[in-house]
Design brief:
The protein is an alpha+beta fold. Helix content is 23%, strand content 35%. It has a domain of 90 residues: Roll (Thiol Ester Dehydrase, Chain A), CATH 3.10.129.10. GO terms for molecular function: (3R)-hydroxyacyl-[acyl-carrier-protein] dehydratase activity.
Amino acid sequence: MSNYYSGMILSHIHIPAVTKKSIQEYAEVSKDQNIIHLEQENAKKAGFSNIVAHGMIGAASAAQAVEKWIPEYEFISSYHVRFKAPHYVNESLTINGTIISTAEDCSKVTIEINAETEQKNVILKGKIVVQLRKENGYASSK
């Protein structure tokens, strides 16, 4: 039997502020050199109030919350997000999650997630489906 249930609110996970250096490093590795990610002046010309972090930085942070919420997870089998607002340089995030369903055989849980800034601006919303480990008493899908 699973320790997780539909409607279960998961703890809030704090993600430290994204720095200009980490945004620049991501831009280099990803080859996404869009001007809104690199210089404040260019971001402002494009209508933003500051340098914008790449959306995948926030999405990866949200996915990492699974490790804290469900330590016995085996892998993420599905992950869908929609970006709702920009995540600016020097903004920290809070990742929130609620389990919205569990598989009948307790092998998977589906988590509704969102990431919000300190100002309560939701930057992304989505769903993560997590496969649980068989050795912890959970059935495995084949």
